[in-house]
Specification:
This protein is of the alpha+beta class. 39% of the residues lie in helices and 26% in strands.
Protein backbone atom coordinates (compact mmCIF):
# COMPACT_ATOMS: atom_id res chain seq x y z
CA UNK A 1 0.00 0.00 0.00
CA UNK A 2 1.30 3.45 -0.94
CA UNK A 3 0.42 6.45 1.21
CA UNK A 4 1.17 10.09 0.48
CA UNK A 5 2.05 12.50 3.23
CA UNK A 6 4.18 15.51 4.13
CA UNK A 7 6.76 15.59 6.86
CA UNK A 8 9.88 16.99 8.50
CA UNK A 9 13.08 14.93 8.47
CA UNK A 10 13.98 14.11 12.09
CA UNK A 11 17.05 11.92 11.60
CA UNK A 12 18.92 9.78 9.11
CA UNK A 13 21.70 7.23 9.06
CA UNK A 14 23.40 5.21 6.38
CA UNK A 15 21.83 1.78 5.80
CA UNK A 16 24.09 0.48 3.04
CA UNK A 17 26.21 1.89 0.27
CA UNK A 18 23.25 3.39 -1.58
CA UNK A 19 20.47 3.83 0.97
CA UNK A 20 19.62 5.49 4.26
CA UNK A 21 17.07 4.89 7.00
CA UNK A 22 15.20 8.06 7.89
CA UNK A 23 12.68 9.23 10.48
CA UNK A 24 10.04 11.82 9.61
CA UNK A 25 7.31 13.54 11.56
CA UNK A 26 4.35 13.69 9.21
CA UNK A 27 1.07 15.53 8.95
CA UNK A 28 -1.29 12.53 8.98
CA UNK A 29 0.78 9.54 10.14
CA UNK A 30 2.85 11.01 12.97
CA UNK A 31 6.40 9.68 13.26
CA UNK A 32 7.38 7.18 10.59
CA UNK A 33 10.58 5.39 9.65
CA UNK A 34 11.65 3.94 6.33
CA UNK A 35 14.37 3.28 3.81
CA UNK A 36 15.18 5.84 1.16
CA UNK A 37 16.76 3.83 -1.64
CA UNK A 38 19.38 5.88 -3.43
CA UNK A 39 19.48 8.26 -0.47
CA UNK A 40 23.27 8.55 -0.66
CA UNK A 41 23.25 9.66 -4.30
CA UNK A 42 24.34 13.18 -5.21
CA UNK A 43 20.85 13.90 -6.53
CA UNK A 44 19.15 13.31 -3.19
CA UNK A 45 21.63 13.58 -0.31
CA UNK A 46 22.18 17.30 -0.80
CA UNK A 47 18.68 18.14 0.39
CA UNK A 48 18.27 15.30 2.91
CA UNK A 49 19.08 17.67 5.75
CA UNK A 50 17.53 17.19 9.19
CA UNK A 51 14.73 19.74 9.53
CA UNK A 52 13.83 19.98 5.83
CA UNK A 53 10.21 19.52 4.78
CA UNK A 54 9.24 16.87 2.20
CA UNK A 55 6.43 15.32 0.22
CA UNK A 56 6.54 11.58 0.93
CA UNK A 57 5.28 8.50 -0.88
CA UNK A 58 5.37 5.69 1.70
CA UNK A 59 5.28 2.13 0.40
CA UNK A 60 4.25 -0.25 3.19
CA UNK A 61 4.03 -3.90 2.12
CA UNK A 62 3.02 -5.16 5.59
CA UNK A 63 3.46 -4.36 9.27
CA UNK A 64 6.53 -6.56 9.65
CA UNK A 65 8.67 -4.98 6.95
CA UNK A 66 10.33 -1.59 6.89
CA UNK A 67 8.59 0.85 4.56
CA UNK A 68 10.34 2.37 1.58
CA UNK A 69 9.96 6.10 1.15
CA UNK A 70 10.28 8.29 -1.92
CA UNK A 71 10.89 11.94 -1.14
CA UNK A 72 10.46 15.26 -2.90
CA UNK A 73 11.68 18.43 -1.26
CA UNK A 74 8.98 20.99 -0.45
CA UNK A 75 10.88 23.49 1.68
CA UNK A 76 14.61 23.39 2.49
CA UNK A 77 14.54 25.07 5.90
CA UNK A 78 17.90 23.95 7.26
CA UNK A 79 20.23 25.28 4.53
CA UNK A 80 19.04 28.78 5.41
CA UNK A 81 21.10 28.46 8.60
CA UNK A 82 24.28 26.82 7.36
CA UNK A 83 26.18 29.94 8.45
CA UNK A 84 24.61 30.01 11.91
CA UNK A 85 25.88 27.19 14.11
CA UNK A 86 23.62 28.05 17.03
CA UNK A 87 20.47 27.84 14.95
CA UNK A 88 21.67 24.65 13.24
CA UNK A 89 22.20 23.01 16.64
CA UNK A 90 18.82 24.33 17.74
CA UNK A 91 17.15 22.60 14.76
CA UNK A 92 18.91 19.31 15.51
CA UNK A 93 17.98 19.58 19.20
CA UNK A 94 14.30 20.10 18.38
CA UNK A 95 14.13 17.29 15.82
CA UNK A 96 15.90 14.88 18.18
CA UNK A 97 13.45 15.63 21.00
CA UNK A 98 10.53 14.88 18.69
CA UNK A 99 12.14 11.67 17.49
CA UNK A 100 12.82 10.46 21.04
CA UNK A 101 9.54 11.50 22.65
CA UNK A 102 6.90 10.59 20.07
CA UNK A 103 5.49 7.18 19.18
CA UNK A 104 5.65 5.51 15.79
CA UNK A 105 2.56 5.90 13.57
CA UNK A 106 0.70 7.95 16.18
CA UNK A 107 -0.40 11.22 14.64
CA UNK A 108 -0.59 14.42 16.65
CA UNK A 109 -1.59 17.47 14.65
CA UNK A 110 -0.51 19.79 17.44
CA UNK A 111 3.04 18.43 17.28
CA UNK A 112 3.13 18.77 13.50
CA UNK A 113 1.80 22.34 13.66
CA UNK A 114 4.35 23.18 16.37
CA UNK A 115 7.13 22.18 13.97
CA UNK A 116 5.85 24.58 11.36
CA UNK A 117 5.72 27.29 14.04
CA UNK A 118 9.24 26.39 15.22
CA UNK A 119 10.72 27.52 11.91
CA UNK A 120 8.68 30.73 11.90
CA UNK A 121 10.04 31.60 15.34
CA UNK A 122 13.60 30.75 14.33
CA UNK A 123 13.71 33.83 12.11
CA UNK A 124 12.71 36.21 14.88
CA UNK A 125 15.04 38.32 17.01
CA UNK A 126 14.04 36.51 20.22
CA UNK A 127 14.40 33.03 18.72
CA UNK A 128 16.24 31.62 21.76
CA UNK A 129 13.47 32.65 24.13
CA UNK A 130 10.91 31.33 21.66
CA UNK A 131 12.71 27.98 21.39
CA UNK A 132 12.44 27.32 25.12
CA UNK A 133 8.74 28.24 25.02
CA UNK A 134 8.44 25.88 22.05
CA UNK A 135 9.92 23.05 24.13
CA UNK A 136 7.35 23.65 26.87
CA UNK A 137 4.54 23.71 24.31
CA UNK A 138 5.75 20.47 22.70
CA UNK A 139 5.93 18.78 26.10
CA UNK A 140 2.36 19.86 26.79
CA UNK A 141 1.22 18.34 23.49
CA UNK A 142 2.67 14.94 24.41
CA UNK A 143 1.17 14.94 27.89
CA UNK A 144 3.82 16.62 30.07
CA UNK A 145 2.51 20.04 31.02
CA UNK A 146 4.95 21.82 33.34
CA UNK A 147 2.25 24.48 33.91
CA UNK A 148 4.62 26.95 35.52
CA UNK A 149 2.00 29.67 35.93
CA UNK A 150 0.13 27.51 38.42
CA UNK A 151 3.08 26.31 40.49
CA UNK A 152 5.37 29.33 40.85
CA UNK A 153 5.43 31.69 43.79
CA UNK A 154 6.60 35.26 43.51
CA UNK A 155 8.25 37.95 45.58
CA UNK A 156 9.53 41.48 45.10
CA UNK A 157 13.30 41.89 45.06
CA UNK A 158 14.62 45.41 44.47
CA UNK A 159 11.18 46.35 43.11
CA UNK A 160 11.30 43.55 40.56
CA UNK A 161 9.03 40.51 40.47
CA UNK A 162 10.98 37.29 40.96
CA UNK A 163 9.31 33.93 40.34
CA UNK A 164 10.45 30.73 42.02
CA UNK A 165 9.46 27.18 42.84
CA UNK A 166 10.24 25.81 46.25
CA UNK A 167 10.60 22.30 47.57
CA UNK A 168 11.53 21.06 51.03
CA UNK A 169 15.21 21.16 50.10
CA UNK A 170 15.69 23.96 47.58
CA UNK A 171 14.36 27.10 45.97
CA UNK A 172 14.71 27.47 42.19
CA UNK A 173 14.43 30.79 40.41
CA UNK A 174 12.21 30.68 37.33
CA UNK A 175 13.04 33.24 34.61
CA UNK A 176 10.16 35.69 34.13
CA UNK A 177 9.69 34.88 30.45
CA UNK A 178 8.74 31.28 31.24
CA UNK A 179 5.80 32.53 33.30
CA UNK A 180 4.96 35.60 31.25
CA UNK A 181 5.64 34.81 27.59
CA UNK A 182 5.27 38.50 26.66
CA UNK A 183 8.15 39.44 28.94
CA UNK A 184 10.80 40.94 26.66
CA UNK A 185 13.75 41.75 28.94
CA UNK A 186 15.53 38.46 28.38
CA UNK A 187 19.31 38.11 28.40
CA UNK A 188 21.59 35.11 27.92
CA UNK A 189 21.67 34.41 31.67
CA UNK A 190 17.87 34.06 31.66
CA UNK A 191 18.03 31.88 28.54
CA UNK A 192 20.51 29.50 30.13
CA UNK A 193 18.50 29.36 33.37
CA UNK A 194 15.35 28.64 31.40
CA UNK A 195 16.76 25.94 29.16
CA UNK A 196 18.42 24.28 32.17
CA UNK A 197 15.18 24.32 34.16
CA UNK A 198 13.22 22.72 31.30
CA UNK A 199 16.00 20.18 30.79
CA UNK A 200 15.96 19.23 34.47
CA UNK A 201 12.20 18.75 34.29
CA UNK A 202 12.50 16.50 31.22
CA UNK A 203 15.29 14.45 32.75
CA UNK A 204 13.45 13.92 36.05
CA UNK A 205 9.93 13.33 34.71
CA UNK A 206 10.40 11.84 31.24
CA UNK A 207 13.83 10.49 30.41
CA UNK A 208 15.00 8.93 33.68
CA UNK A 209 11.66 7.16 34.45
CA UNK A 210 11.85 5.59 30.98
CA UNK A 211 15.51 4.57 31.31
CA UNK A 212 16.54 7.13 28.70
CA UNK A 213 19.14 9.86 28.64
CA UNK A 214 18.43 13.40 27.61
CA UNK A 215 19.68 13.78 24.01
CA UNK A 216 23.31 14.74 23.65
CA UNK A 217 22.25 17.07 20.82
CA UNK A 218 20.44 19.27 23.31
CA UNK A 219 23.47 19.36 25.61
CA UNK A 220 25.70 20.30 22.67
CA UNK A 221 23.34 23.13 21.82
CA UNK A 222 23.53 24.46 25.39
CA UNK A 223 27.33 24.18 25.39
CA UNK A 224 27.45 26.21 22.21
CA UNK A 225 25.30 28.94 23.78
CA UNK A 226 27.70 29.10 26.72
CA UNK A 227 30.84 29.39 24.57
Amino acid sequence: MIKSDEGFLLSKFKYNENSIIADFYTKTNGKISGIIFGGTSKKIKGYLQVGNFFHLNINSKNDTKVSSINVEIIKPYTPLYFNNQKKLHCIISAMTLIKNLTSENEDNKNVFDSLENFFLELDKKEWLKNYIIWELTFLKYIGYDLNLKNIVEKELVNNKTVYFVKSSTQKKIVPNFLVNHDYDKVDLVDILKGITLVGNYMEKNIFSPNNMKIPSQRSEFINLLQS
